[in-house]
Structure formats: C-alpha cells, structure tokens
Amino acid sequence: EVQLVESGGGLVQAGESLTLSCAISGSAPSGVATDDYAIGWFRQAPGKERERVSCIADGYKFYADSVKGRFTISRDNAKNTVYLQMNSLKPEDTAVYYCAAIVTGIVIGSLPTENEFDYWGQGTQVTVSS
After folding, report:
1. 101: which residues sit within 8 A by CB, 6+ positions away?
2. What string of DSSP letters covers 40-95?
3. Tens place of pLDDT for every residue, the chain, 130 residues?
C-alpha cells in the first residue's frame, strides 16, 4: 500500500506564500517505483467539488488555469516528497489541499482527473485571508 501525508498548510494573508509537502511511503502492488508515480494536487473548498490543481509525472508538470503562473510543483525523489509552492495566494485559494498518486505507470499527457488516481492523502487546510 502507498501512503501519502500532506503538510504545510496554514493561515496566511492574501499575497503571501505557502509550500505544501506530500510525503510518499509504502509500495504499490503494481511494482512501479515511487519515482515513477504521477503525483497530483487537488483542493476542495467548502460547498464546492474537488478541483484539480497540478500534477507532476515523468518530469512533466501540469497546472490548472486558476493557478498557472502562481503555483509550482516539484519533487525530490531522494526524499520521496512532492511540493507545491504557492505564491500570490488569494482568498479563493482557501481549501483543503490533497495530494494523490497514480501508481500504475501510465503515461500522463494532461492534468488527470481525480478518478485516475489510486491513492489519496488526508489533506491539509489552507486559509487565505483578505
């Protein structure tokens, strides 16, 4: 089984920055190496559906239009951790942020939908005040 643990959430003011971390542990039944997992970030605001934010796979990075230019996804394979650097935060970025993994080694050509992910973390709250 694969475990994902998010951290780094908090309360910030509009215009400030936060970096979220997604620590990956365990192993997938597929046998795919951790370095080859596609890792995505999603968010869900109160009363709204979960929204795709970003994904990193095979060195490629994908972003939702709403965060493009402000958020940066990266990974440190030595630490089995994926990061989401969030700059110029806005009140509308307030949500619970989740990371998720696709562990089957499929080729990712665009920002995947939540149904394509195999494992999920518990989420971390990000609140941006105006």
Report:
1. 2, 4, 24, 28, 37, 38, 39, 40, 117, 118, 119, 120
2. EEEEE-TTS--EEEEEEETTEEEE-TTTTTTEEEEEETTTTEEEEEE-S--GGG-E
3. 999 999 999 999 999 999 999 999 999 888 888 998 999 999 999 999 999 999 999 889 999 999 999 999 999 999 999 999 999 999 999 999 999 999 987 888 889 899 999 999 999 999 999 9
